[in-house]
Design brief:
Layout lengths: L1 E4 L2 E4 L5 H7 L7 E5 L2 E3 L14 E6 L5
Parallel strand pairs: 1-5
Antiparallel strand pairs: 1-2, 3-4, 3-5
Length: 65
Amino acid sequence: MELFINGVKETGEPCTIAELAARKGLAPGALVVELNQQIIKQEQWSVTALQDGDRLELLSFVGGG
């Protein structure tokens, strides 16, 4: 399966958004996911299966001062 993540083509096994975030070691509390130009709420990550050719933007927010 091919995905475009933050503009970069990646190949991997079929999965959900939650599984992808875990594989990448991303902290869900500070992550916003846009799938095919639509924001996906965190409650939906575990039931949103990714499809071949999907485009994701994974945005992590970092606090500081």
